[in-house]
Design goal:
Shape: flat
Number of helices: 5
Strand order of the largest sheet: 1-2-3
Structural class: mainly alpha
Distance between the termini: 80 Å
Low-confidence stretches: none
Radius of gyration: 23 Å
Helix content: 40-55%
């Protein structure tokens, strides 16, 4: 059996909601997939990659891989979610037998890292809150 290594990557793509049938018309080619029963009613996205290649992705697959990142606020929310997931996994790990097997120095370093992540999450959340507040009216200088 071939031994496979796990990889994690990130890509930025452009996409718009589109059924498989519509995407095939736009692309001018048939897309082979067994995940779709009705090509015209299937929910998904026409996807364009950075190199210009275009394809179609089922909605559930696309939604697991991508999040809207048009604005800096979108990107801050993505970062918040990603850091929060890692933080929660780390905190959960501190209650395991594997954590108790670590040396005192390693346990202490992980706790400090998690404390820093918690502070970062607070600051990032606060920045997001501030972005959502309306801008105060600025006084016009007298002429």
């Amino acid at each position: 059996m071939l031994e496979m290594t796990k990889y994690t990557g990130t890509k930025t793509v452009k996409a718009c909601p589109m059924s498989l049938g519509e995407a095939e018309k736009v692309l001018g080619r048939k897309i082979e997939t067994s995940a779709v029963e009705n090509r015209e009613e299937s929910e998904g996205y026409l996807v364009e990659y950075e190199d210009g290649y275009r394809s179609w992705s089922p909605k559930d697959v696309f939604d697991k891989a991508y999040r809207v990142s048009e604005t800096h606020l979108d990107r801050m929310n993505i970062e918040l979610q990603e850091v929060e997931e890692r933080y929660l996994k780390g905190r959960k790990f501190t209650f395991t037998q594997e954590f108790r097997k670590l040396t005192d120095k390693k346990r202490d370093a992980l706790r400090k890292q998690l404390d820093s992540m918690e502070n970062y999450l607070y600051l990032l959340s606060r920045r997001i809150e501030l972005e959502l507040e309306p801008e105060p009216e600025r006084e016009q200088p007298d002429k």
